[in-house]
Amino acid sequence: MLEANYTLENVKHVVLYEVAKRAFEGRMEEIEATLPYEMAPGPKANFRCCVYKEREILKERIRLAQGKDPAPYRPRPGIVQILRAACEGCPITRFSVTDNCQRCMSKKCQQACRFGAISMQRERAYIDADKCKECGRCAEACPYHAIADLMRPCKRSCPVDAISTGEDGIVNIDYEKCIQCGNCIKNCPFGAISEKSFMVDVIKLIRAGIPVHAMVAPAVEGQFGKEITMGSLADACKELGFASMIEVALGGDMVADSEAKEWAEAYEKGEKKTTSCCPAFVNMIHKHFPELIGNISTTVSPMQAVSRLLKQQDPAAVTVFVGPCVAKKNEVLFSHSIEGGNADYALTFDELQAMFEAKGVVLKAKANDFQQGSVYGKRFGNAGGVTKAVLRAFEEQGVKADVTVKGCNGALECKNALLLMKLGKLPADFIEGMVCVGGCVNGPGSVKWEAEAKRDRDTLIGGADSRGIQENIAEQEADRVPMHR
Q1: How much is the pLDDT for 480?
Q2: In this structure, what is the dihedral angle of CA atoms 39, 42, 45, 49, given to the nearest 10 degrees?
Q3: Beta bridge partners of residue 80, listed in sequence order
Q4: For the chain, which terminal residue's Cβ has fewer other Cβ atoms within 10 angstroms, N or C?
Q5: Which residues pair with 321 in a beta bridge?
Q6: Kindly report the CA angle at 31 between 321 and 205, in degrees rounded to 5?
Q7: CA dihedral defined by 162, 163, 166, 172, rounded to 10 degrees?
Q8: Between these two residues, 261 and 480, which has the higher pLDDT value?
Q9: Model confidence at 334, in pLDDT bands (50, 70, 90)?
């Protein structure tokens, strides 16, 4: 049952937990019909106008947690989805005159408007929504800052202008533009945008006794506390039913080693390249800068590298990436059929936590003695981490190349750098693109936000094995895995 003091994160977690619990128990029949009533029994509503609306929103969330479209009558492509029942409360008109308006005689707002949308009423200025073009000149001109910019948070956060508002006031996603980064999920205060989950599919495979391997992203350290080491997570994943757990930081080492060779070759030819690790960044290039597709590194992502390693060792293995990234689900969904060896499924950290709780698995503190990736591989999830790892690989390979790299921290920097590359004006040799500000460690599927997890993560990584990339790859015998698309 939901409680009135729950936040949006609490509600989302409870839904994931309840769905995971029933999946482990094999009680998925009529879950959409019964669970909303168990969670919101009524008659009093906790969050919305009425208990009926709450139940409809819960039903849509329960469908997403099963990997289904939130509204069966409105199927939509892509991982990121709109919960129509939850989308409400945002003003349709972007600019609004507030009580700060003094109805001053200078009428600077009116003079700044080129479309005749502003008139002076008895008490304040008035903006005609039918004439307003949302240019923002009136807000800039007002000396009292009395005109508020009320752009919907989801639309404001979208780096590729993929979100629009329909005539019914409900937002729509243009999947031809959407890069599946999940920024809108993080920023919608009503939780009206969320993503499909592979959680139930993974649980069914585990219950069937199929060897399912968890591949945890480098950003995992610090997500569950400073005493929860990789060894703690490995034990918990086995208790949950996974055949094994492997660090994707190892894949980061493999990628750094391969990418260093590719960068060195490109540098000699005078070619400019971009990284290929961030799937949202790769989506941005494919959808918004198609001229630069040939500039994307052909080295696979760390997730794909580890998946190929596991499938090479056991062709029957089912591989599941676990990280903070929503775009990884999209990468799995749309590249598995055309790129052999990619992960079969992807989960977020909050989904893994829900699975732990549903199965009664308690994370226990353990010595930091389970280390499969180097420190450089572990830093792949940080903005700038890929560049540092590749430059370290240069040193270990004895490569002498005075390369310059444009590190892009966030979607806006990515767009600016790609535009310069498109125009032939990028001064750097390479681009490292991270769509999430701060890197994967600030992804939308995190248990803790980056600021909370940073201290614990730095403590854990600081005590990790400091072996080099080459030494780590040799120890893992991973250099025989095909690393290019």
Answers
A1: 77
A2: 110
A3: 195
A4: N
A5: 215, 346
A6: 35
A7: 80
A8: 261
A9: confident
Which residues, 6+ apart, have CB-to-CB distance to 237 below 8 Å? Answer: 214, 216, 244, 245
Residue 224 token pair: 């569950």
| pLDDT tens digits for range 204-229 | 999 999 999 999 999 999 999 889 99
Question: What's the pLDDT score for residue 165?
Answer: 86
Mean pLDDT of the chain: 92
Exposed / middle / buried, residue 79 (Cβ in 10 Å: 0-12, 13-18, 19+):
buried
Whats the size of the chain, residue-wise? 485
pLDDT tens per residue across span 286-297: 999 999 999 999
